[in-house]
């Protein structure tokens, strides 16, 4: 690792302050733990999952005034057991980004403009498109050689799950896919 003069001065000044406090009988670890507690005062704590890759590492997140101010690996999470890679540790840049889109957006066919729509309108549009697609592409039977088999399915709808889905969500996604008559269920980690 290379360091310029300014970085070297910062590091040595920090080390010097730490050593000086220890010389005075101050427990540096306790001070660090106490200041960390102050930072988290008044925050709401949530568990979440990293959104970057298909490992789906668990996180503990602290939110204050609608802003994520601290995140760390969840020690109770079965995948990462408290650790995070450098990408996951820097994830706060995503939820705190001013460019983050928080409302459904719609671009009409042929239009270059995106417009904000309500969640109700978005759900209605998705539901109607799924219904139309299912009706237009429904196969009741299929030939297998000279035998006609009952298949009752559509090949035009697919579900894509993600590492952030819980077991319970995956169960419901699979149920919904079977209910709609598609066997096309895939997962982010296999792509
Ligand atoms: S913390 Fe790293 S390894 Fe874990 S899900 Fe995020 S990007 Fe993937």
Describe the structure in your own words:
The strands form four sheets. The chain has a three-stranded antiparallel sheet, with no helix packed on it. The chain is elongated. The relative contact order is 0.08. Among the domains are: about 40 residues; about 55 residues, no CATH class. The two termini are about 35 Å apart. With about 190 residues, it is an alpha+beta fold. Bound molecules: iron/sulfur cluster (SF4).
Secondary-structure map with pairings?
Elements: H1 5-23, H2 28-39, E1 44-49, E2 58-64, E3 67-73, H3 86-89, E4 105-106, E5 115-116, H4 119-137, E6 139-144, E7 147-153, E8 159-161, H5 167-180, E9 185-187
Bound molecules: iron/sulfur cluster (SF4).
Iron/sulfur cluster is lined by residues 50, 52-53, 55-57, 80, 84-85, 87-88.
Range of helix content = 25-40%
One letter per element, helices H and strands E, the order comes to HHEEEHEEHEEEHE
Physical arrangement of strands within the biggest beta sheet:
1-2-3
Helix-strand makeup class: alpha+beta
Radius of gyration: 26 Å
Count of discrete alpha- or pi-helical segments spanning 4 or more residues: 5
**How would a crystallographer describe the biggest sheet?**
3 strands, antiparallel
Q: Mean of residue pLDDT?
A: 87
Q: What ligands can be seen in this structure?
A: iron/sulfur cluster
Measured by DSSP, the beta-strand proportion falls in: 15-25%
Please state the overall shape, judged from the principal axes of the Cα atoms: elongated
The parts where pLDDT drops under 50 for at least 5 residues are: none
Number of DSSP strand runs:
9
Q: For the record, give the distance between the C-alpha atoms at the N and C termini, rounded to a whole number.
A: 35 Å
């Amino acid at each position: 690792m290379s360091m310029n003069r300014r970085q070297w001065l910062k590091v040595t000044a920090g080390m010097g302050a730490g050593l000086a406090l220890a010389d005075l009988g101050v427990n540096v670890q306790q001070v660090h733990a106490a200041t960390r507690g102050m930072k988290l005062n008044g925050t709401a704590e949530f568990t979440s999952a990293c959104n970057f890759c298909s490992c789906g590492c668990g996180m503990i997140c602290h939110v204050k005034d609608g802003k994520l101010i601290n995140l760390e690996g969840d020690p109770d999470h079965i995948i990462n057991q408290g650790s995070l890679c450098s990408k996951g540790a820097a994830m706060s840049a995503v939820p705190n980004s001013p460019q983050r889109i928080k409302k459904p957006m719609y671009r009409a066919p042929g239009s270059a403009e995106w417009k904000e729509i309500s969640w109700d309108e978005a759900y209605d549009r998705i539901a109607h498109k799924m219904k139309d697609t299912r009706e237009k592409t429904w196969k009741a039977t299929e030939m297998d050689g000279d035998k006609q088999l009952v298949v009752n399915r559509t090949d035009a709808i697919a579900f894509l799950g993600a590492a952030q889905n819980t077991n319970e969500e995956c169960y419901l996604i699979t149920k919904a896919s079977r209910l709609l008559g598609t066997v096309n269920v895939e997962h982010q980690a296999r792509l």
